[in-house]
Amino acid sequence: MSWALPLPVAIPLIAAALLVVGGELLPRRVYDAIGIAAAAAATAFALLILQASERHDVLHWFGGWHPHNGIALGISFTVDPLGAGMAALACALDLLALVYSWTFMRRQSQTFDVLMLTFGGAMAGFALTGDIFNMFVWFELMGVSAYALAGFMVEELGPLQGAINFAVTNTVGAYMILMGIALLYARTDALNLAQIGRTLERRPADRLVIVAFVLIVTGLMVKAAIVPFHFWLADAHAASPAPVCMLLSGAMVELGIFFIARVYWTVFAGPLGVHEAGVRDVLVGLGVTTALVGAAMCFLQRHLKRLLAYSTISHAGVMLTGVALLDPHSLAGVANLVLAHGLLKGGLFLICGIVLVELRHIDELEVRGAGRRLPGTGVLWLVGTVGLIGIPPLGVFLAHQLLDEGARAQGFGWLAAVGAVASGVCAGAMLRAGARIFLGWGAAEDALLTPEPDEDAPERDVSLGLMATVAGVAIVLGLVAALVPGLEARTQLAAERFADPSAYRAVVLHGAAHGDMAAHLSHSLLSVDTGSALYGFAALAIAAATAAFGLWHRRLPGGLRRAGARTLWPPVTVMRDAHSGIVGDYLVWLGAGTLAVAAVWALTL
Amino acid sequence: MSSRQRLRGVIAAPVLTVLGGILLWGFSGAPAFGDFHGAYGDLLNRIAVPQRHTTNVVTAIVFDYRGFDTMGEEFILFASVVGVVLLLRDIRKPAGSKDDAVQSDAIRLFGVLMVGVVVVVGLWLAAFGLVTPGGGFQGGVAIAGGIVLVFLAAGYRPWRAFGREALLDPFEGGGAASYVALGLAALIAGTPFLHNLLGNGTTGTLLSGGSMTLLNWAVAIEVAAANLVLYTEFLESYLVPHLSER
Amino acid sequence: MTYLAYAVVAWVFAVGVYGAIVSRNLIHLALCLTVTQSSTYILLLTLGYRHGGRAPIFKGVKLGTAAVDPVVQSLTLTDVVVSVTVIALILALALDVHRQSGSVDPDEISTLNG
Prior knowledge:
The complex is a heterotrimer. Chain A is mostly helical. Helix content of chain A is 73%, strand content 1%. The mean pLDDT of chain A is 90. The mean pLDDT of chain C is 89. The N and C termini of chain C lie far apart (48 Å). Chain C has a single domain, classed as Helix Hairpins.
């Protein structure tokens, strides 16, 4: 199975190159078909690799350069189930987005296809790689493809601004990662993750390792949209067409979180092991802040894509918390959250595209009630939103259950409440939007929500059926993913393997054959824990309350509203002003955030 | 400068100063300048010539030991050029009918000579990249630079013969595709991706390195074409509208 | 001497980011990012330097002669290509912004906020 490892990367890339060679020779449909075929092939191979990796880690040394006395000469793809799963999810979302675009993207579809393919190939490479500089290369390819796709709608200023904010902040993040890589190379003379980890393990962390850790993790947190590095995400989503948003929110942000976990467990767990609490506390703090800020900003949006984008930020905060706990249960929870969230959020973005095309606006208040003629779409929106709340046993419930288990094991039981509040408020905002659009409920004006420039609607002659089907597939898959037999136990097993650096090193550097894990693969259905079920229902209640507040807050008694405004409005206004849309401001936050993290870790680690 | 901009500067200066200090603190844990003794680098310096018959170890790393990184890098250039074409699609105005030919005979003569010289230097850099300093990336950029001299020396009309997407796209896409194809060919032959398929050749000559030579040329072609597309795009978006107003 | 090299890296990085923060012109901002990136080149090449080492080219040179690190040179090569591409994209966006709004000041083009 080692031969299959390069394929999820090579196939989309060569297809992209061939599309450019083709130029004007062939009709547009042929190019779209080639793109879809390439994405489908990549997804198929990624799933095949996932299946193989469950039994033992799969390895591929590029160029045939095997390690020489434990020194890695070349680049490896080192694949365990979590990495393969991430690659498969990214390829699958790419495929869904390309199928959706068959009808949604009419102009420039060839260039669009090329960039979507390079984006998909880069994401697969990023998830599968075992070499830190190779990770940087795929990070940049993801970035470049995404910046260009974000600037797709060049006719309006908003998208251009979003693309610039995206490009500048992520580029600075990339430079920080590169500096961190250079420092690790200086200390260990290696670029292979396993080899770096083995060398660093010998001594406790000193100043160089700490600064490298800060630089790499902070750069990845920019990609993962963690507060205070998150400002670019909402702008980028407002800028990008719906299928691109699906990939940004569904896979790219999650890959940032994934690699934070990867780089911690393979490289830094050894030297930082004694200071686990220091690492955990800072990252949990950032994760919780992100979850809450994201949820609050989500509620304040009326631009549908920005609303969903802030919800992604909130979920990214929860994912970071899960990784930060440094516990296999919560890591398994993160894996499940990535899977369910990616599919559900992706589907919701595709519905945004439908709303834009059919109802000609993307602003919740502008299209109030107009969605009544799209009942099927409305139902899909509701189903997707409910999936993101986490009511047992559907959607993100399994993820939250595993996260709660890990949190309790590490003494952070209160995190379950934070998760419930964050997902509840975000879902409430989505329910509010859905109710306003598809049912016409709620007031026609709402001063709480920030007006944004609207988006130009694309041509009308699209196939609503195809778009709705693709969105439906994504949402249904996300909803029922947790019901796959054995998923709970298998992700836990995969997480334990992920968090085992010495086994990883043995496989990569010494070619040790991992024992065949086939015997351990479970097929049992998920079990529902009562505590988590209660949190799930609490989130539902919070969502309903938030939605009701959002729709009908003007009916509250005047005294209550005035008191609420006096206490809440100032901090909310400050928070909103911080999201100014100006790239210079974002960079100041980036610098200040890096400084804060660096200072804390320099002192505590 | 607005007050917001001033505020940003006032906050940013101390933040960046302290951050720079922390970076320096981290750097002080690195080996002293000039004290490099890395196992990876030294190992490759020793084995690249016997194993791959290339005397330029950097090229051996770029196209063989870490050739997969180069594939990604080539596609970064590829994707960004496609992106620039996408972003500038509404602004560019190809084909000015006004004749903006360069008037000075001295410039024209010098330019015509230099085009040839620079392109040949670029080809030499690319071809001999396995032996002496150089390689596909360096050579490709030089070749593109030589061709854009046509615009500088002769004007926009002669440049249009070269700076056309229809001409450049097949080379750009072809270069990128052939790199991946060479990797896939190795895979189909049962060896790992990008494994060497040809014999190693003789050290110190043009025919050394095996597959590396082909990969080198694939990159040279792709980089030259990509750079020319970039020049075309920016020329037609920024300069040509000004020229046709004259 | 050691500290000079690393101090240059930290200084160039900080200056580049500062320039990007207070920039009033998108083209200037793109070039500030180039400056920031240069700091990564300097860091990589500084780390690979060996006193008395020659270039890692062995044509006519005996194998085993001390040479500087070839790996960081290949990393820097990749780095340079990456920077060209990102700057090209940002410049293209700047051209588009100018066409849409007549300005290239980042503070004046912010329509998305909150």
